[in-house]
Amino acid sequence: MKAEYHAALDWLYSFVDYEAGQRPRDESRYDLRRVKLFLERLGNPHLKARTVHIAGSKGKGSTAAMIFAVLREAGYKTGLYTSPHLIETYERFKIGDHFIGEDEFIVEVQKLKPIVAEINDQARYGELTTFEIMTVLAFDYFANNKVDWQVIEVGLGGRLDATNVVEPNLSIITTINLEHTDVLGDTIKEIASEKAGIIKAGVPVVSAPQGEDATGVIRSTCHKIASPLRVASIEAMTRSSFNGGFQMFNILGRHNIYDIKLPLLGTYQRINCAVAVAALEALIDQGVEGITKETVERGLSRTDWPGRFQVIDRGPLVIVDGAHNPASSMELVNSLDAFLDADMMPHPAVLVIAASADKDVTGMAEVLAPVFDEFVVTRTRHPRGMDVKILGRAFEELGRKVNYTSTTAEALVFASQLAGSEGLVCVTGSLFAVGEALEIRPNRAAG
């Protein structure tokens, strides 16, 4: 890796990075006027491509990856901007088959540096943050490469997120639940209001099925600004089967019945897939050419989105999944039941878990403790990692014996020894833990 690339990364992370530390609730910390000013200096690159903008509490990255894959299959040069990354920063910026290269990243940083310095020196609207600079970098990278479409995942919330400067062709809101309450609000209504902040006047909206409170907020927002709303249907889906590294089921859309062959094995991906299909059919309704039953099916079958209920080894069976709250933990358990055919759970079943400091680990433990035989608690390298004693106590209070380790690598070695060749190791609790597991043990179970 080039020294210049390391220097570019060091510069990027030298600014305020709310992903690494406490996120403030103070709205003034998220002033989009400085992002707009930055983009104006670059000729507004965010407006150069057609855009799909995606917010939500769960599944927005998976949904983004699916739509990206289908737009590519339909013949469009497509960019994908997501967060956080699993292992390396460059994973956030993708065009077609390729992540941004080191040389491209260096060129972008050298271009942005003087503009960032000027804006921050003036500080008219506060200083730019790491995520804001990353977001502008993504837009400029896509514009320079003349993408036809850009699929943009919201970082946090929606209304005040740095990505919310786009003028989208379609807005999507995936499943909403309680998350980041220190920033977004303490109720589903408050959080839904932040997510609904991406809705633009007259721009079509596709939503996952939501609870009553979230549905009310989204419908009200769409009604006020005349944005057509379509809620993805999940009733007309067949049961999943699993074969050859794929999850297979059928979705009844408005235009077609789709035979889905998805390389994402978590059963929770069914809802994300239904949202993606509804979104793609909304683009068909807008006259976007090339999106057909065939390109939808082929694109979905080629979706690449690692770290979400992914089998990375066998003997023992090792599954990684970025479940980071009680609802996601329950979806992990349901996915294990479906994938392993309910009563075929390998034993010993060993849970490796790390979490960020702001997570509801008591609720997660209540879901996960009854399912596993052994528990290995660890901490990731991430600055917001939770202290192992606090995390472990959540399981000990439920009467479980906890094994403590200081790194993900140590935890994986120890868990594999506990599981033996016939058991199961499941790594979860945060995407950071999953990323470290993938870094340590590259996928040896592909196909």
UniProtKB/TrEMBL annotation:
<keyword id="KW-0436">Ligase</keyword>
<dbReference type="InterPro" id="IPR018109">
    <property type="entry name" value="Folylpolyglutamate_synth_CS"/>
</dbReference>
<keyword id="KW-0460">Magnesium</keyword>
<dbReference type="Pfam" id="PF02875">
    <property type="entry name" value="Mur_ligase_C"/>
</dbReference>
<dbReference type="GO" id="GO:0005524">
    <property type="term" value="F:ATP binding"/>
</dbReference>
<comment type="similarity">
    <text>Belongs to the folylpolyglutamate synthase family.</text>
</comment>
<dbReference type="InterPro" id="IPR013221">
    <property type="entry name" value="Mur_ligase_cen"/>
</dbReference>
<dbReference type="InterPro" id="IPR036565">
    <property type="entry name" value="Mur-like_cat_sf"/>
</dbReference>
<dbReference type="Pfam" id="PF08245">
    <property type="entry name" value="Mur_ligase_M"/>
</dbReference>
<dbReference type="GO" id="GO:0004326">
    <property type="term" value="F:tetrahydrofolylpolyglutamate synthase activity"/>
</dbReference>
<keyword id="KW-0067">ATP-binding</keyword>
<dbReference type="InterPro" id="IPR036615">
    <property type="entry name" value="Mur_ligase_C_dom_sf"/>
</dbReference>
<dbReference type="GO" id="GO:0008841">
    <property type="term" value="F:dihydrofolate synthase activity"/>
</dbReference>
<dbReference type="GO" id="GO:0046872">
    <property type="term" value="F:metal ion binding"/>
</dbReference>
<feature type="domain" description="Mur ligase central">
    <location>
        <begin position="54"/>
        <end position="279"/>
    </location>
</feature>
<dbReference type="InterPro" id="IPR001645">
    <property type="entry name" value="Folylpolyglutamate_synth"/>
</dbReference>
<keyword id="KW-0547">Nucleotide-binding</keyword>
<keyword id="KW-0479">Metal-binding</keyword>
<dbReference type="GO" id="GO:0005737">
    <property type="term" value="C:cytoplasm"/>
</dbReference>
<dbReference type="InterPro" id="IPR004101">
    <property type="entry name" value="Mur_ligase_C"/>
</dbReference>
<feature type="domain" description="Mur ligase C-terminal">
    <location>
        <begin position="307"/>
        <end position="430"/>
    </location>
</feature>
<protein>
    <recommendedName>
        <fullName>tetrahydrofolate synthase</fullName>
        <ecNumber>6.3.2.17</ecNumber>
    </recommendedName>
</protein>
